[in-house]
Amino acid sequence: MLSNHDASAQNRLDMTNARNATSIDVLNVKQFIYNGHEEWQRKERLVEIMSKDPVFDKSKREWMTRTEKYSRGLRMVNRIHELGQILGWSKQDTTVATSLLDDPLPVSLHATAFEPVFLLQASQELLDKYAGLIATRGIFGCYLQTELGHGSNVAALETTATYIPETKEFDIHSPTLTSSKWWIGALGKTATHGVVQAKLLLPGGEDMGPHLFLVQLRSTETHKMLPGIIAGDIGPKSFNGFAATDNGFARFTHVRIPKEQMLSRFAQVTDDGKYVQPPHAKISYGGMLYIRSGMVTTAGWVTAKAAVISIRYATVRRQGTKGADELEKQIISYPSLHTRLLPILARAYVFISLGRALSQSFQTMAQRLSSGDASLLAELHATTSGLKVLCTTASVQDMENARRSMGGHGYSAFSGVGRFYADLIPSVTYEGENFVLDQQAVRAALKAFHGLFGAEGRSRPSSSTIAKLTPSSYYLRHLSSPTNEPPILKGSDSSWNNVENLILLLEWRAALLVHEIAQTAQDPDATIYQRVSKGTTEAFVGRRIGEMIGGLRTNSGLNANDVAVLSRLYLLYLQTTVESALADLLSFGLLRIENPPRVGASRDPTRGLRMAIAQNCLSLAPEAIGLTDALGFSDWELDSALGVYDGNVYQALWDKAQTEPLNDKEVPDAYGESIKPMLSRGRMMAERQSGPKL
């Protein structure tokens, strides 16, 4: 860097030039990603209000204790509901405002777990009594499923709910230490009520498996625990994540609740203790599916924040080789950087769109469930299981890759990415540990396979049966006829830019993986469950991306250039997904190249794919700032010195460092306590060893 060069001015200039270089209409794309002009305006209006309100100030949070963060979190939620009353916000306004808070908060579980489970499963009698209170936050709820000894294995939960016909009550009890409810968000100090997952025991001792019960936990007057319940916070989490959330424990000692507090819209117990079966064995999974569908959207938006911060920093950071202007190059210009960061941006866009579609699918399923129609449950369970694994795994990896792309400054708390990572990383565990969910995705795939090809996997399906394949198993059609073959790719890069070619490769891979596990189920290899889960989910996503690209062309809010750029971004997702699948594609001989490389040229049959990725990233690099701006994050939302909108990152980082409380005193208290004694001792020892000092 030149000795008299003003780096801050250069930062701002580089960011301005990058904005001027983008060809997309940022507002058009912004409205597309927010699902319309009205939703974008709503979000912009709420950010304007909240960013100026001192209750939502973020400048001190890095130095708060956990207790202070918990109290701050509740102050913010309380303020949102105050503003809602003062300003006449709608329910959607309040929902969006709450989502703008980037601290995981205890009452968030009220809206994402307790409320949807209750509304979906409760009887009309319970709804009449509690739905209004739940909606207005007259009570705070939590969802008590996980136990100290069991998490993903819901069938093995130990908490019991024994029906007592004489009093028409259920006895809720924690019979062992390991039956203690554990990790429950909002249980520690906040919730007044909870939906408890417990084994239903009939009067004769018959175990009917896990069912849901509404239990009051604390007094609505004093907030003290009710008799027979012990509860508290389980303590700090790794990386100081979820600091504002009181993940809690609870033990029940024969707590009696009225019979009516069983969530009995579907499964029921009669007054005399007889069990009434639900219309579908897994109908109680509805609430869990709602949570998982929301996790896909969350993964998309958090990944988007990491992409925005890292790409903005890479745009203004100059390092390494000097150009003709004697300035070091912007690191976004290096292929090793933009080929890492642009796929992260692509995944953010795809996950946001997938999450929106998944939420719509859940609403459709919920409407049908309310009338006892469980026909969509299995399909949504299959897709949410696979997508939860795929999206959370990818987002955690992307978060770390984004942080590492920023060099040493990425490790600073002021980059913001570390905070997102700490709060995102448990998502691979909660609501179904990802390796366990892989098995659920595999079971769904095998069920579809055997439904199509019979128990032995050798039957020839009819055309009508093939036509009934659901989106999650659509790839299986490729196995329906021995004449079906995967696509033949040309030796040039053009085949790797063909969306349908890429989707077909992903579908063939999924089909052959499922066929493989069907034939070797009794002797599975080391990674087959993970490969099948990932392969089938990526085939599903690939087909959805094809539909997304088709939908772009009919979107009246986008111009032709916007469509072209977004199509290339979605193409990049497909290309990098296929690249990550090369081991399977090569294992099954799916890469059929029409014109193999000549002698003396590259012998790598996949070089064309990697060259296509390189070229696509190069073409998208000038659009990177426009595409990140279209995600619509304000500086208040990102709270990142390295992701500031104007690009003035070094000044922002300097200013943040000046707020460090350790800098309040020139000489720290530790000097007199520890530093001075050590220095004095060291000098005395040196004098004894080498004589008096000069």
The separation of the N and C termini measures 41 Å
Report the C-alpha radius of gyration, rounded: 28 Å
Low-confidence stretches: none
Task: Tell me the overall shape.
Answer: globular
Number of helices: 22
Gist?
The protein has 694 residues and is an alpha+beta fold. 51% of the residues lie in helices and 10% in strands. Strands 1, 2, 3, 5, 6 and 9 form a 6-stranded mixed beta sheet that branches. Strands 4-8-7 form a 3-stranded antiparallel beta sheet, with no helix packed on it.
Descriptive keywords:
lipid metabolism; ACOX_C_alpha1; AcylCo_DH-like_C; three-stranded antiparallel β-sheet; oxidoreductase; 22 helices; globular; six-stranded mixed β-sheet; 694 residues; Acyl-coenzyme A oxidase
